[in-house]
Amino acid sequence: RERDIIVNAIQCGQHGGTTPQWQQIAQLGNGRYFQVEQAGSAVAIHTPYDDELASISAELDETRLYYGDREAKEKQQRKIAATRKLHAESSVPSLARRATFNASASGSTNLLGEGELVDDVASGRVELSGIAPDDLPEPMQAMPLEKQGALVTETAERRKELQDRIQALSVKRSEYLRKKVEETGGARDSLDDKIYRAVREQSASVGLHYEADTPDY
User: Facing residues of 116 across strands?
Assistant: First the structure.
């Protein structure tokens, strides 16, 4: 519904002549206005764990096996292509953050999407024997059912191993970032913190509550 839409306005820089326009955008969008430095004031710290997290994240993405009819597979291939482009063009710290999210329970949907064979079989939502051969991933179509099952089990185990490694590294990464942010005097005036606090307050009005007082970098 239109009244539920919130638009927050962020002014980068201190050009006073444009401030009223940004404030008006926030007002019309039922949102918040805030100002940050021209460079954006975002917290950007490259940790010693980012490269490994980015690498494991790429391995985790490759554990996805999609099934379905022709239309579903075309949609899934677009998701895979977008993921590979993301890995090729994104910064290492952003890939590390993505890895942390995708390995979490809340990030599972973002990682897998729809029609992911390993998760659907492991969860019991589908039976491997009930899937038409043409709907299976192409490398599996000529396999006997026993080998199909073995591949799904092996892939599920590999995925769990990668997720566990990501979660362990993410704990170390979060602690490293916490200390670095504290060393620089905190991130109270950062873009990240301002967005987080605004969204947390706005979410409360619709019954959503964030446990953390500050964003996780």
Answer: 66
User: For residue 99, which of 199, 173, 177, 191 has the smallest C-alpha distance?
Assistant: 173
Q: What is the largest CA-CA distance in the chain?
A: 70
Query: If 0-12 CB within 10 Å is exposed, 13-18 middle and 19+ buried, where does residue 112 land?
Result: buried
The 3 state secondary structure assigned to 23-59 is HHHHHHCCCCEEEECCCCCCCCCCCCCHHHHHHHHHH
Q: How far apart are CA 98 and CA 90, in angstroms?
A: 10
Nearest by Cα to 34 from 8, 59, 1, 4: 8
What is the mean pLDDT of the segment spanning 3-10?
A: 78
Residue with the two structure tokens 């566990």: 164
Q: Which residues pair with 34 in a beta bridge?
A: 10
Q: Which residue has the tokens 């940050």?
A: 36
* Residue 11 three-state SS: strand
Picking from 79, 47, 43, the residue whose alpha carbon sits closest to that of residue 61 is 79
**Burial level of 179, CB count in 10 A (0-12/13-18/19+)?**
exposed
pLDDT the model gives residue 1: 45
pLDDT tens column, 182-199: 776 655 666 667 777 778
The pLDDT assigned to 87 comes to: 93
Sign of CA dihedral 107, 11, 37, 199: negative
**Average pLDDT, rounded, for the chain:** 87
